Amino acid sequence: MLVSSSVWSTIFLILSTLLTLGSSQRCGGSIEAGAGVIRSSNYPDGYPASDCVWIIDSGAENRIRLKFQVRDCSGDSLWMYDGDGTVGVPLLGQYCSTVPPTSIDSSGRFVTIRFMSVGGAENNQGFVISYESIDVALGSRVIWSEIEPSTGSVRLNSVPADPVVMLKPDGTVQDTIVTDFYFMAPSGNWTALETRYGERELIWSDGLRNVMIKGSMGSDRSVKTYASTSPSVLGVAVDWLTGNVYWTDAAYDWIIMHDASGTRNVLIIDEDLDIPTGLAIHPSRGYLFLTDSGSRPKVERSNLAGGGRLQLVSTNILRPSGITVDYETDLVYWVDSDPSYNHMEVCNLEGANRRTLMFSPINLGLFDLTISGNYIYTTAKESQKLIVLVKDSGQQLFNHDLQYTPYSIVTYAPDVQPQEYSPCSSNPCSFLCVGGGPNGYTCLCGNGFLLKEDGRTCEKEGTIDPPQYFVASRSKLCRYPINFHDIAFSMVTNFNASCFLEERIHAVAIAVDVEDGLSFFSDFETKEIGMTTLRDGAPVQIIMGGVRDVQGSYDYNLES
Question: What domains lie within the chain, and their CATH numbers?
Fold first, then answer.
């Protein structure tokens, strides 16, 4: 079916008018995909009289995939067109009255969606449509980071996401498998890797330069998004609905999250971790999954703000490493790299129905894994192999010898990261927003700030949260972040020491009681020991006078 020029003139008149309205009134508009969702006004509480037009542009050499998450608009009209609204654009379908297919793909870079309701509908929920840009040029790939042992050069390598295309007709692996490289460097330590497919992005850590990097697929452009990691970032995960990036740091035994730009960050978890390794996220469930390969190895789950922690696996586990989630079946998979018993296991989101998929008495050095359709790809450091298994049975399909040592691995393909509406998309938080919580989101604040009663706004509290270094510097007491020696000062141009107590005469020694929020210090000139709370500008209480040359400090019990 074709659309007449008079109809399109009406549509674009409506569209140009709508784009001049305020955001609270706007329906329709131009969208650069990406990935995301389109919703009817006031969803799910009915919708007013509407005539809305969305035009989605996926960019050159891309296509658009549409999926209905919710469709409740009977009696009204929802049209989808295979193009950008020029004369003669084919109609893909009218889906308020017709059951849509599982997914709808455009033939080119544009899709136009028009929704019209003459009188509105209070009893209909409306609709939610997800869209995702499909990378036609690169196709579906499995990508891993690797390091050349002798030279230290690094690169991101890849093979087709469907392993069947690498097999001969008799089911054996092809004699030669051609791989494609995307990013390379003469040196680096690229151990953790993640993708945000809808944005055509790869995100990885470089432990040599202590930074997080974001690269654009289809180009050689990459930018450093976060400085001041340690060399021991072993896992990274992205919440593709918000763009938030989570990563483990085994040097500091913590998990940090930063926003898509890397300009805002918050410490998510810093307790009861020994050697945090792998990370995975289930955005629609609001879950963060992690592995810890330290003295008390475990597989754990928390919410996306780091709370509500639950140990899924803590017995018969030795050195868990990479972890991933199957979003279709709600199953969690991980590898255990203990040299005496390399194996891969799976359980459900609650830690039940645990079973072993594969094991090897030989030390393969299993490091990470990713799901691609009905298959699992896993990297083996010690044997320098890429191993492919059938997901349900664990049967090995084939393994492929690599020239470099492989580390983290991801699947870059459509439908791998399911799209849905995120309440964070309306920017409800003054600092950082994560999915989950009573309203579908939770607001987080940075160090030294507290969340106000409205649950959205951060205000400066003046408190000094650990972990910190505390330094007595003659006339003042100052603090430095615990990862001070890993800060990349070439990137952090605005760094300043934060001093919480000034106008001292000759402060020499300092001690901190983190549990009670107190700081003690000695003054060489006044021969006094002072105490203050761990707050910026807090008053000083002199607790002892007439002391001699106090140049060190120790912890003692004032009640003894």
Answer: 5-134 (2.60.120.290), 141-412 (2.120.10.30), 423-460 (2.10.25.10), 468-545 (no CATH)
